[in-house]
Amino acid sequence: MLAISGALIRKLRVEVGLTQERLARLVGVSQAHVAKIERGVVDPRLSTVNRILQVLDGWKSRRCRDIMSSGVIFARLRDRVLDVSDKMVKHCISQVPVIERGRVVGTVTEESIMRRLGSDIDKRTVKEVMVSPLPIVSEETDVEKIKGLLKTYQGVLVSRGMRIVGIVTRSDLLKFLCEPV
User: Residue 151: pLDDT above 60?
Assistant: First the structure.
């Protein structure tokens, strides 16, 4: 028989990367109550334990496909920077993957455009301003595993087989972290 203890709840909470405060908000109890449960000071109601386990299970099983933005907008090496910049503004995005012959070869970011901004920007092509490609992960990748990548990169491309089907940006991750389970 499985015994649910405060130590087990703490272990599960830490594994999924939630703070006591965040778990408390998601469950609908105080942070102090979560702390007491984890220390074994209080004997919580079964309904509270069930809500805690539900939140932890839901949090743990989130995959990139659950939080990605689909309909990725791509650029090509020969596209004009002004055209790509217009797309970025129109769609409220800050990076665009660059593809050539079906492969991701780079990324155009607001920063990479700004670094090359000059009087001849209308003549520049994507090839001249692009930076390294964003990392690519499977749509089945656990959200927890991409947190580290998003500390370094502005986004992570999401693939299904050999096809790019979405992107997870820092903004997408922040929305995910703020939403109730």
Answer: yes
Q: For tokens 């309904």, name the residue.
A: 47
Closest C-alpha among 59, 58, 61, 71 to residue 157: 71
Residues 35 and 29: their CA atoms lie apart, in Å, by: 11
Q: What is the mean pLDDT of residues 19-33?
A: 92
What average pLDDT score do residues 43-65 get? 86
Residue 133: Cβ within 10 Å count: 16
> Nearest Cα to 73, choosing from 86, 55, 64?
86
Give pTM, 2 decimals.
0.70
Q: Which domains does the chain have, with CATH numbers?
A: 6-61 (1.10.260.40), 65-178 (3.10.580.10)
For tokens 């209308």, name the residue.
122
Which residue type is seen at 172?
A: D
Q: From residue 17, give the alpha-carbon distance in Å to each of 30, 59, 169.
A: 18, 9, 19
d(C-alpha 165, C-alpha 138), whole Å: 10
Is there a contact between 134 and 107 (Cβ–Cβ < 8 Å)? Answer: yes
Helix 6-16 to helix 31-39 angle (10° resolution) is 120
**Distance from C-alpha of 128 to C-alpha of 133, rounded to nearest angstrom:** 14
DSSP, res 51: H
